[in-house]
Amino acid sequence: MVQPELHFYPLDEHVTAFSTTRHGGYSEGNYSAFNINHYCGDSEEAISKNRELLCRLLGIDDCHLMMPHQVHQTEMVVIDQDFLGLSFEEQKERLEGVDALMTDVKGICIGVSTADCIPVLLYDKVHHCACAIHAGWRGTVKRIVEKAVGEMMAVYDLRPTDIVAQIGPGIHLDSFEVGDEVYEAFEKEGFNMELISKRYPINDSKSFTVQHSPLPSKWHIDLPACNRQQLISSGIPSNQIAVSDDCTFQQYKTYFSARRLGINSGRVFTGILLR
What does pTM read for this prediction? Predict the structure, then answer.
């Protein structure tokens, strides 16, 4: 029997938190085998079958699996009873251009799609509410995680000290080579560059222009560390923040990686379901 292989996170006994892997679905090629993202070019038939598999595993109806169309910005949507009362088309329109979802409705699974970007899950054990955040480098520079914590505080009147957080699989420092313009974007926004960046040699002999010249190098950015720092700055205790050791670029046979497979490939879905 085909069944998606999920990586579960022990955030709390009252939630199911997870990331999908590439295994256990119907998609083919660079989408194989488990992809539920509609916006990356996969077969709609395969996506539909995969969504059915995931919903069956989670024990929810398809209409209770929420995933936005992300655009690397900081727009957020609250999934509440008013949202659930909208038509399918109205919900789809509301989820356009959104990079974070939050809810306090039981039986609703919210999540985000990534393929090297960083997924972040938040759960408040006191108010029983959750948030799923897509933090690529652009969203990270714009401090989407800090904004999401602030939005949860405003909507649910919670305290950051009651939040537990999970940073899911994404590209890690060793693999995330960036141009100077990306480094400068983080520096301009006040990030501690000593903590989140490092220059790595470019191992390409063709790049030598002068014999015995120093090995050329490029900046690398630690996106998980950037987002962990934002969570701490928002008031979440460091011992309540877990960070996945999995690098999507290095482990592309387990997780989708756009840098490895190209943008026309599947996406990891990282979600949280309130029980």
Answer: 0.94
